[in-house]
């Protein structure tokens, strides 16, 4: 380009060399990023790359996605399986931690790979796609477990599936009399909004209430393209919820959280959960102490509408589930 700025990529960047060529990784960080790439997957979509300011070493979008050598340092408190999925897996692809709901992980591929992901040891471009037999076993488990009323598709990112395949899975689950709610967790609408086609939106019309939890951590992620993708989902009858992770250097200020939650509401996304960081290996640089998180939320009380207020939650160790963290206030009067 005439000003010497590297051109924005037309496809997903998956190697340190590609990130460097796009101007998103300095030469001095290549060796460290290459070491990280040997253990953890890398993916930065064109939509995400376009949001990164390469001139800002503290860019909050880059911090979420660009590999850093610090990822190879495991702190004493960090765990290989911080949410304890494994002990609660009755069949491959299913996690049953709560009595009335269960996760279905049909694949382990994502459009982008977050540097703080609690499943970072498992996700990757090979997809972790359930075979036909494994998917049948998983769906059969849902069919014979009537206490489960909510099926939650996660992974990986379920919206990476083809509309046909996703529609088939949702249809099979919705046909079970005891399944009352369907939920999907996804980063696709903000990280790869072009994947949210009319065909994909139509595939979500499963005949049962469907909630989509959009993972976003910074207001800048709600681009016009992302808002358009979310609008297609709303028109298909999908209820949109927002989930975020409290991250050092990304959204660890009252102003950043306020901007994020307001951006969600403008996009018709109800802030649902603000997660305390799960202690996955190599994620300590993102950690914000719980008391600091509580203080941030106290600063927001009265500044934002109650519609913008998520529940601040943390996973208990050993798969004990989520607990709300507050903040707490003295009773009135």
From TrEMBL:
<keyword id="KW-0411">Iron-sulfur</keyword>
<keyword id="KW-0004">4Fe-4S</keyword>
<keyword id="KW-0413">Isomerase</keyword>
<feature type="domain" description="Radical SAM core">
    <location>
        <begin position="96"/>
        <end position="322"/>
    </location>
</feature>
<feature type="modified residue" description="N6-(pyridoxal phosphate)lysine">
    <location>
        <position position="322"/>
    </location>
</feature>
<dbReference type="GO" id="GO:0016853">
    <property type="term" value="F:isomerase activity"/>
</dbReference>
<keyword id="KW-0408">Iron</keyword>
<protein>
    <submittedName>
        <fullName>Lysine-2,3-aminomutase-like protein</fullName>
    </submittedName>
</protein>
<dbReference type="GO" id="GO:0051539">
    <property type="term" value="F:4 iron, 4 sulfur cluster binding"/>
</dbReference>
<feature type="binding site">
    <location>
        <position position="114"/>
    </location>
    <ligand>
        <name>[4Fe-4S] cluster</name>
    </ligand>
</feature>
<keyword id="KW-0479">Metal-binding</keyword>
<keyword id="KW-0663">Pyridoxal phosphate</keyword>
<dbReference type="InterPro" id="IPR013785">
    <property type="entry name" value="Aldolase_TIM"/>
</dbReference>
<dbReference type="InterPro" id="IPR007197">
    <property type="entry name" value="rSAM"/>
</dbReference>
<comment type="similarity">
    <text>Belongs to the radical SAM superfamily. KamA family.</text>
</comment>
<dbReference type="InterPro" id="IPR058240">
    <property type="entry name" value="rSAM_sf"/>
</dbReference>
<keyword id="KW-0949">S-adenosyl-L-methionine</keyword>
<dbReference type="InterPro" id="IPR022447">
    <property type="entry name" value="Lys_aminomutase-rel"/>
</dbReference>
<dbReference type="InterPro" id="IPR003739">
    <property type="entry name" value="Lys_aminomutase/Glu_NH3_mut"/>
</dbReference>
<dbReference type="GO" id="GO:0046872">
    <property type="term" value="F:metal ion binding"/>
</dbReference>
<dbReference type="Pfam" id="PF04055">
    <property type="entry name" value="Radical_SAM"/>
</dbReference>
<feature type="binding site">
    <location>
        <position position="110"/>
    </location>
    <ligand>
        <name>[4Fe-4S] cluster</name>
    </ligand>
</feature>
<feature type="binding site">
    <location>
        <position position="117"/>
    </location>
    <ligand>
        <name>[4Fe-4S] cluster</name>
    </ligand>
</feature>
């Amino acid at each position: 380009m005439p000003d010497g700025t590297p051109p924005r990529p037309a496809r997903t960047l998956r190697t340190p060399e590609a990130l460097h060529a796009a101007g998103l990784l300095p030469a001095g960080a290549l060796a460290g990023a290459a070491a990280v790439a040997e253990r953890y997957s890398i993916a930065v979509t064109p939509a995400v790359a376009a949001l990164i300011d390469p001139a800002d070493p503290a860019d909050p979008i880059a911090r979420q996605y660009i590999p850093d050598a610090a990822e190879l340092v495991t702190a004493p408190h960090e765990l290989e399986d911080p949410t304890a999925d494994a002990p609660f897996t009755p069949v491959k692809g299913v996690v049953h931690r709560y009595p009335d709901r269960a996760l279905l992980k049909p694949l382990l591929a994502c459009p982008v790979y977050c540097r703080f992901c609690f499943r970072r040891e498992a996700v990757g471009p090979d997809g972790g796609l359930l075979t036909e037999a494994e998917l049948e076993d998983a769906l059969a488990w849902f069919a014979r477990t009537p206490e489960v009323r909510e099926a939650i598709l996660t992974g990986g990112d379920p919206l990476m599936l083809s509309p046909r395949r996703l529609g088939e899975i949702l249809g099979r689950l919705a046909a079970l009399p005891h399944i009352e709610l369907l939920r999907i967790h996804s980063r696709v609408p903000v990280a790869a909004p072009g994947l949210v086609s009319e065909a994909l939106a139509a595939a979500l019309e499963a005949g049962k209430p469907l909630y989509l939890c959009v993972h976003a951590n910074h207001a800048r992620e709600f681009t016009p393209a992302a808002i358009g993708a979310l609008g297609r989902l709303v028109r298909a009858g999908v209820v949109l919820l927002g989930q975020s992770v409290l991250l050092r250097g990304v959204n660890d200020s009252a102003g950043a959280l306020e901007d994020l939650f307001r951006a969600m509401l403008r996009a018709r996304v109800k802030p649902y959960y603000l997660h305390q960081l799960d202690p996955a290996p190599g994620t300590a640089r993102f950690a914000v102490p719980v008391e600091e998180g509580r203080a941030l939320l106290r600063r927001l009380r009265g500044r934002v509408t109650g519609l913008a207020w998520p529940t601040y939650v943390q996973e208990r160790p050993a798969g004990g589930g989520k607990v709300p963290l507050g903040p707490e206030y003295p009773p009135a009067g």
